[in-house]
Amino acid sequence: MKAKWGKSLVWIVLCVLLMGNTQAQNDSIQEILDHYQTTGAIPSLFVLHHGSRTNQLFTSQEVEGLAKRLNGEFHGKDLQIYRSADGVRYQGDHQLSPSLKVAVRVVDDKPTETKKKPYVSLELRGTGTPDARLPQYRKQFQQICEAFGMTPSLHFSIQGEVDLKQASELKSLVQSTTKPFGATQVEEMKTEQTVSISYFIPRWGSGIVTQGGEMNLQVSARWNYQTNRAVLTMGTPIITIEY
Predict the structure, then answer these.
(1) Domain membership flag for residue 10
(2) What pLDDT score does 212 carry?
(3) 210 and 224 in contact (C-beta within 8 Å)?
(4) Per the UniProt record, which residue ranges are transmembrane (predicted)?
(5) CATH number of the domain to which 101 belongs
């Protein structure tokens, strides 16, 4: 009886931790969305991405089955299979609208092993300003991960251009943009054309550990010499698109 109670207690604790982590990810994404609207930047691209290995071990045949089932979650019928010396990649792309698409990737990078944990990637990519479909697919990504025994690990990035007088003001732009978050700076990278600073916000929960410390927010500003404007990109826990 004690053993059963012990197992139940561990399961309850794990569920609470996962729910807390999911809620923190939701809050961070929503805060970035809300705040980005106040920066004066015109959104041109946003990406929501989950990427992790499965918690469960699969055979090669089961990996293919997993890929088909994940692809089916987005009503996809065509699943592309690419085989190489590095392994097998299953790929499904779904154009939801002219401005929004979903990509499903399952990678078996250990095809010779009997049992392995494949890498799963779910990506929602859109142009322009995110609408109500973003939180819908964010919720669907989380539900899919939980249903298939994976821990949701969501990354969100949004990018657009904002008016700025000159490239020398890039750092000031990043600092003024992040000031309302009450974030602590972790690392900084600066060139003549680009400034990228990582931060940590405790209320957003755990992030990614780097040489400078733990971070869960990254903001960059790059000078676009073609338009004479700044490209402002924000991401949590890190930016996962080119900036």
Answers:
(1) no
(2) 86
(3) no
(4) none
(5) 3.30.2030.10
